[in-house]
Amino acid sequence: MDKEPIKLFGTAGISRFHKTLIERHGAGTTRALGWQKIEGQTMRFDKLSQIGNLSGHSVLDAGCGHADLFPFLKKRFSSITYYGCEQLPDLLQIAVQRYKHENNVVLLQGDFLDKAMPMTDYVLVSGSLSYGHADENFIYNAIETLFTKCRIALGFNLLSGGVESDTLLRAYQPDDILNFCRTLSNEVQLQVGYWPDDFTVFVYKE
């Protein structure tokens, strides 16, 4: 993999990463998204879904991939309006094929940090903030931007370890992320212990 600085959105490096996974594991698979095991994706979804009672609310899935979060939430909550945003067409087209006939599902191609993205009650981010970035402050700017897009709460997961130096991924110290989130809200929760080298943060509007 190239050693050039990584810029998360719209770069050839991220696109090549997923194209390679698609070639190896097949389009529409969990492995094509970068998850080593489907159980890891499921555990992360389960943790994110504990942010609150999502029934009757709108949810933005930032970096939705194949929009796998939608059927997961649909089984657990009623009357959800789901917005899925994905930068990479190769991933989004799978989501469109699967859910284009679903009511209350809106799938958008683009940068989920774009100001044009809709305001929703909840913003959930599973894995999409785990890529490295040339700007060391990117993660903090991204969290703050996403928090402005929710009416009730933001939930996201990040890696805390298990990342090799030659990958596109980045690990973070939970305390660093938690301390930053406390500058945005007095109501912040840290979730750990559900999957190795992973943590989830909930940030609520006051």
CATH topology: Rossmann fold
Question: What is the element string, with H for helices and E for strands?
Answer: HHEHEHEEHEHEE
Q: Tell me the domain tally.
A: 1
Class computed from helices, strands and strand pairing = alpha/beta
CATH superfamily: Vaccinia Virus protein VP39
Multimeric organization: single chain
What level of helicity do the residues show?
Answer: 25-40%
> What's the end-to-end separation, in Å?
43 Å
Largest sheet: 7 strands, mixed
Strand order in the largest sheet? 3-2-1-4-5-7-6
Give the rounded overall mean pLDDT. 86
Number of strands: 7
Question: Which key features would you list for this structure?
Answer:
206 residues; alpha/beta; 6 helices; 7 strands; 31% helix
Nutshell version of this structure?
The protein is of the alpha/beta class and 206 residues long. The chain has six helices and seven strands, in the order ααβαβαββαβαββ. It is globular and about 40 Å long.
Describe the structure.
The structure is a single chain. This protein has 206 residues and is an alpha/beta fold. The chain has a single domain (12-204), classed as Vaccinia Virus protein VP39 (Rossmann fold), CATH 3.40.50.150. 31% of the residues lie in helices and 21% in strands. It has helices at 12-25, 38-48, 69-76, 89-99, 138-148, 174-181, and strands spanning 58-62, 81-86, 105-109, 120-126, 150-159, 188-191, 198-204. The protein has a seven-stranded mixed sheet with strand order 3-2-1-4-5-7-6, sandwiched between helices.
